[in-house]
Amino acid sequence: MDNMKIQFLLVIIFFLFVVPASSSARDIAILLRVKSGHLGDPNGLLANWNESAPNAPCSWTGISCDRKTGQVVAIEFASFGISGRFPADFCRISTLQKLNLGDNSFGDSISPDSWSLCSHLHFLNISLNFFVGQLPEFIAQFDNLTVLDVNSNNFSGEIPASLVRLPKLQQLNIASNLLNGSIPEFLTNLTELTRLEIGSNPYKPSPLPSSIGRLSKLQVLFFRYANLVGEIPDSIRDLKSIQNFDAAMNNLTGRIPESLGELKTIQQIELFGNRFSGELPDIFSGLGSLFMFDVSENNLTGKIPESLARLHLISLNLNDNQLEGKIPESLALNPNLCQFKIFNNRFSGTLPQNLGFSDLDEFDVSGNNLEGSLPPNLCSRKKLQTLNLFNNKFNGPIPESYGECNSLAHVRIHNNQFSSELPAGFWGLARYTFLELRNNNFQGSIPASISTARGLTQLLISGNRFSGELPAEICKLEEVVIMNISKNQLSGELPSCITRLKTLQNLDLSENRITGQIPKSVSSWNDLTELNLANNQLTGEIPGELGTLPVLTYLDLAGNLLSGKIPSELSKLKLNKFNVSNNRLEGKVPLWLDDNYFVSGLRGNPGLCSLDLKPLPECPKPKSVSLYVVCILSAFAFILVGSLVCVLLKASKLLPIRSKRKSVWRITAFQRVGFTERDVLAALTDDNLIGAGGSGRVFRVKLKNGQMVAVKKLWAAKRVRESEEVFRSEVETLGRVRHGNIVKLLYTGIGDDFRILVYEYMENGSLGDVLHGEKIGFLLDWPRRFAIAVGAAQGLAYLHHDCVPAIVHRDVKSNNILLDEDFRPKVADFGLAKAMQQDTEGSDQAMSHVAGSYGYIAPEYAYTLKINEKSDVYSFGVVLLELIIGKRPNDSSFGENKDIVKWVLEGAPSSKKGEGIGHITDGSSILDLNQLVDQRMNPSSSNYTEIKNVFDVALLCTSALPINRPSMRRVVELLKDSSFPRPK
Ligand SMILES: *[C@@H]1O[C@H](CO)[C@@H](O)[C@H](O)[C@H]1NC(C)=O
Ligand SMILES: *[C@@H]1O[C@H](CO)[C@@H](O)[C@H](O)[C@H]1NC(C)=O
């Protein structure tokens, strides 16, 4: 017995001291060798890796040892900021089971050999790093690996077939990489899997593996953004443990399968953004655990099944389908419902009046055919934040109880038939940021209590019957950006304090009955871009102080009783819109306005006169002696210049233009060219054709003097009128414009059946061709793309800010940005360009149809047809995205009906926060961007900060609301700042 005890003790002592001592010495050596070999440790977290530390290496940061044996079992560096190559040598520690390198700056590719060193691990996490290349093959048998997480790196290529050598794998996460092979069927051989997350990769279109049902232990399936096609396989009925089924944002077709109804364990179904059609099957009666259900953005038809209404859902999302019928009354009785979103369907009838006895925070039924009154208790729990009811036919008053709904922040109930006064409390709810009541029949006055809605940024209440005075308390809305109270019945004077609203960008009070004068002390209006006070009863003079507003571009004071002269100070403004028509202004039109572009905005003022603007009465001729002298001198100068021009023209036999139109002449006379019309026409052969577009064909012509030019010949015959417009627009615009980033027009010619335009030749064609063309051998690297972005932005900024009147290009796209031999960009193709305020009826009706190119058109364009330089900013944002992502804005890989902007907004992995258990939301934005960036340009890691910043600018430019887009001048600044990392 004693002997055995002693032996036992010896064994214990042996294990406690002898074995650990020798193995830890070896482990220490391994650890230190790896650290000194190639680990970058900017935060110094491994500083205590010191041989002489007590209990080394178990006391070192990041190292864990087995309590009993004292051997190193885990190395965990999560979020240490460490860099280096994959430290495979750590795996030489034979007792190591867990290696977690997640969220660091490790990079480079991983060879199968070093990978194999780690085949004894149980847990391997290298997610959120910068690894590239193929996912390494598993050449050894990884017998014990249960967790493999490589998400959010830059791995590309196929999913390795050797993955099936991982017999015990329970969790596999390869999401958010650049894997571009197909999704293999053999994944379903990994039958121990409980989590399978492979989404957010640019796979080849693949079906969901048909034998997916073999994964009977699977709890989480994350296949979002995986380019899935075809139908959901029937075998999903065998996913007996599934909790979260996420195949959203793919191209899945067919019906929502009935077999979903057999997944008794399911909690969350995310199938939004596919192409499912048919009716929603009645599958819900057995799904007692389901709490989130999202099939929005499909093509579903029919009604909401009654059984859905009986679930204890937290979130129901059916928007953007073609569902119809009434909303089942029983939905209202669901005690858990927090989010109720059924917008953009065809639901009719009334809302269940019992809705609201749950913690509802988001209620969105906009875009249906709903009518009747609102459920009185919708906000009974005081949790409701978002109330979207717009574009329906609701009527009646807003229920009194809504005036106590203190949680409300975002209210959009426009385009309904609501009437009566608003409940008193409803005006001033303290959490408001957005209040949109447009186009209803509300009445009553705006009460002083509105001042408690301190955080309101947009107050859009036009098109109602609000009356009374605008209360001075409205000046307490210190964060308001857009205030539109137009088309109401407001009377009385403007509270003078309104000029203290510093953040105001857009103030529209038009079409009311406001009296008094326009306030003078406007120096706080530093952000105001649009001021519309048209069609009121304002009196007095136009204050010259308006000329000091730094960014005012839209000024409409038409239809008032304003008198006096047009103040000369206004000449400092860069106006897109200037309308003072139908007032009582008098005196001479100042020189800066003496231009046809502004004439419609001056009409209807009997006292206004001009020297030469046609419909206005002529001013009496001045008679002073000094003026006579000036006239004689100018006449002399005119003759001199005229004869000089004649001599030049004769010398070069340059008399191409038969039409006597002044504007056309003006253009050609500015440019000295050494060729004739005949030279050019002779060269317009098919051999020289380099492109054809909507308005004509483009040729490359080498002139006798060796100069290369590009000649655009506009279509004639049937499309004469259209091409005439394009021609005039091009000539008038480019004739006025001189800038290094705008293509130079050299010469124009008009024949009976043709119009030609001759430009400087741009060696490298259009940006679109270079980015997307077949010249695979040649690709733009990032620095070049960045320089192109800045140059093109400067060209556009010149059009918007330095030309008077400003010019809106209206067709900004990569194909209209040309590249010279040094890849300097020049904006071209002004066929659709418009000078602001050219049309007589004001900008609202300026366009008879949507112009521009699909994928680049700003969203507001489609419904307002309103010209605005911010539409160019949007299109330019699209070009920036194109430069970063390397795809055309309507590339088919973005999915049907989806353009690059929509794709980026929905596709960026961090944009749908919180939705889907398996969704990766914690990646830094740089990593998210990794997935988007055009890998053909081989970005170095140092490019990424710049790319990220340009990406941010692109997102700003493509904001849905024009008001949120920066001006082009600001875009130039922001882009230039990108070269320097911004302070955090
Ligand atoms: C797997 O783990 C078991 C038990 O921990 C161990 O005996 C076996 O050697 C391990 N296999 C490998 C390849 O490391
Ligand atoms: C997957 O499992 C099936 C059925 O057991 C087998 O026939 C097939 O060879 C396996 N695939 C791979 C790649 O091992």
Automatic annotation (TrEMBL):
UniProt keyword terms in alphabetical order: ATP-binding, Cell membrane, Glycoprotein, Kinase, Leucine-rich repeat, Membrane, Nucleotide-binding, Phosphoprotein, Repeat, Serine/threonine-protein kinase, Signal, Transferase, Transmembrane, Transmembrane helix
| Record EC number | 2.7.11.1
Chain ranges of the Protein kinase domain: 684-980
**MF-aspect GO terms:** ATP binding; protein serine/threonine kinase activity; receptor serine/threonine kinase binding
Task: Provide the transmembrane region boundaries.
Answer: 625-651
List, alphabetically, the Pfam families matched: LRR_1, LRRNT_2, Pkinase
Q: Where in the cell is it found?
A: Cell membrane; Membrane
Chief location of this protein within or outside the cell? membrane
Q: Could you state one GO biological process linked to this protein?
A: defense response to fungus
Reactions listed under catalytic activity = L-seryl-[protein] + ATP = O-phospho-L-seryl-[protein] + ADP + H(+); L-threonyl-[protein] + ATP = O-phospho-L-threonyl-[protein] + ADP + H(+)
Q: What class of enzyme is it?
A: transferase
Tell me the residue numbers annotated for binding ATP.
718
State the membrane topology: Single-pass membrane protein; Single-pass type I membrane protein
Where does the record locate the signal sequence feature?
1-25
Q: Which GO terms describe its cellular component?
A: plasma membrane
Q: Please give the family membership noted in the entry.
A: Belongs to the RLP family. Belongs to the protein kinase superfamily. Ser/Thr protein kinase family.
Task: Tell me the PANTHER family matching this sequence.
Answer: LRR RECEPTOR-LIKE SERINE/THREONINE-PROTEIN KINASE-RELATED, LRR RECEPTOR-LIKE SERINE_THREONINE-PROTEIN KINASE HSL2
Task: Give the protein name, as stated in the record.
Answer: non-specific serine/threonine protein kinase
